[in-house]
Each structure stands twice: as C-alpha cells, then as structure tokens.
Amino acid sequence: MHPSMKRLYAAAAHLDSPIRGQSAVARALGQSPQTLKNWESRATGVSAAGANKAQQMLGISSTWILEAQPPMLIGGPSPVSSSATPCDYVRVQQLDAEAGMGEAVENVDYPEVIRAIDFEPGYIRSIVGFVPAPGRLRLITGNGDSMQPVIQPGDAVVVDTGITSFDGDGIYLINMGNGQQIKRLLDRGVIHVASDNKSYGEPFPMPDGTLIGGKVYLRNRIERFN
After folding, report:
1. Which of 53, 160, 148 is nearest to 102 (CA)?
2. What's the pLDDT at 221?
3. Pick from 42, 92, 109, 142: CA 20 to 30 A from residue 176's CA?
4. 80 falls within a domain
5. Judgement on whether residues 53 and 109 belong to the same structural domain of the protein
6. Rounded to the nearest 5°, which phi and psi values hold at 188?
7. Is the domain of 122 the same as that of 206?
8. How far apart are CA 141 and CA 27, in angstroms?
9. Based on the number of CB atoms within 10 Å of its own CB, is 36 exposed (0-12), middle (13-18) or buried (19 or more)?
10. pLDDT digits (tens, 9 = 90+) for 53-100
11. 3-state DSSP call for residue 176?
12. Based on the domain organization, do 51 and 115 belong to the same domain?
C-alpha cells in the first residue's frame, strides 16, 4: 500500500469519531471504494485533489497525507464524537446516503450516521441565513453530473430538512417517485425542475406528488464564502 494511503487511513482512525476501513473512508470523502483502491496501488498514491478533499471534509492535513509533514490534523470544521456538543456550536450529521444528480437514488429508510461535524453558529448563519434547530441540517453526497458545474460528483451538500415545500428558486432534495435527486426548482408560474448541466435538457414542470426533502446548500463552498 502506498505510504500516503497508510497516512490517510491512520489519520481517519485518529479522528474524534474514528473512520475505519476503505468503504467508510470512501463514503466520508464522497469517493468510490475503487478510487481508494487505485490510490492504494498506484505509484503516486493519493491524488492532490483527494488530499485536499480530506482536509476540507475531515480536517486531515493534505501535507500530512502527501508529504508526511505534521500536524496530522488541522483546525476548522472537524469530525466529533457522539458526546454532547458545546452549546455554542451547531452539529451537522453526515448520513450514509446519496442523492442522484442524473439518475435517482433509492436509500434505506433510516440511513446510518457516518460522522458528525460541529460548526460555529456564525459559520452556519452566513450560509443558511439563520441558526437552525438541532438535527435539522444533514450532510449527504451528490452522485452524478446533472448539477455541474455548481455541484461536482461526490460533493457533500448540506440539506435543510426543515424545508419541505417550495421556498423560492434554489436547489432542493426532491423525490419524483423513483428516489432522491438534487435538482434546481424554478418558479415560472408553475414550479419547474431543472438541471444546471444543460446537456440534461430544458426545465420541465414538477410532477404531481413530488416530495421535497429539503433545501440544498453547498457544504464544499462554505469555506470559500467566509
């Protein structure tokens, strides 16, 4: 196994909420297990993009992964244990669930919580506009390319599950009857469903019976907005 992968696995196991094993680390990074398997065996090890994602999403230093330069873990948003969260932080749980950006994805009724992340209230307020009640925000992974360039395949997004009806133009988690999808909803007198990737065609009227599971915010852009 490439040394950079050994360092990634070791650091993931040392998080406050440990992540162990290829599949679990892959889910936490929004990658496929095959991608991690490739990193394990290839001569260059973990890609620079993968190391940067580990730093952004898990708080594992990219220079530690790639060059073995300490510290192993950095500050900022970081995984935490399931113990009580300080009252001046907002906890967001990442679920073992995906939402399709193209084809819909069916998830189990009660997805497992992979990990939890604590954010400062001001950090959340700058993105969502307010500090929500505990448990209202969830992190899930987008799968597919229909929302490019706004959301990339494998990006983890924040879902405000307190919004279950149309709340103005924006990106939503919806279910049109065949699984969860991330789509843009537009008010054109009648609500339309749109993909940001224009190769997926023109917006179309939202089908009757469509369920809205929440409004989507881009967790991978939180750092860029502050």
Report:
1. 148
2. 45
3. 92
4. no
5. no
6. -120, 40
7. yes
8. 8
9. buried
10. 888 888 888 888 998 888 888 754 444 444 444 556 777 877 666 677
11. coil
12. no
Whether 29 contacts 92, CB under 8 Å: no
1 or 101, greater pLDDT: 1
Q: What is the dihedral of CA 127, 128, 134, 137, to 10 degrees?
A: -90
Number of structural domains found in the chain: 2
Q: Which of 191, 199, 216 is nearest to 139 (CA)?
A: 216
Domain that holds residue 172: 90-225
Q: What is the mean pLDDT of residues 179-184?
A: 90
Given a contact cutoff of 8 angstroms between Cβ atoms, the answer to whether 8 and 60 are in contact is: yes
Tokens describing residue 10: 């070791």
Closest to 17 in 3D by CA, of 90, 92, 108: 92
Task: Identify whether the C-beta of residue 153 lies closer than 8 Å to the C-beta of residue 141.
Answer: no
* CATH (domain of 146): 2.10.109.10
d(CA 75, CA 77): 7
Same domain, 143 and 210: yes
What pLDDT was estimated at residue 112? 60
E-strand ranges in 7-132 read 79-80, 90-101, 113-119
Reported in sequence order, the residue ranges of 44-196 that DSSP labels E, i.e. its strands, are 79-80, 90-101, 113-119, 137-144, 156-160, 170-175, 180-187, 191-194
Tokens standing for residue 26: 């892959």
- Is 82 part of any domain? no
Single-letter amino acid, residue 168 = G
Residues 37 and 120 occupy one common structural domain = no
Q: Kindly state the tokens that stand for 67.
A: 């060059």
Q: Half-sphere exposure of 85 toward its Cβ, with a 13 Å CA cutoff?
A: 20
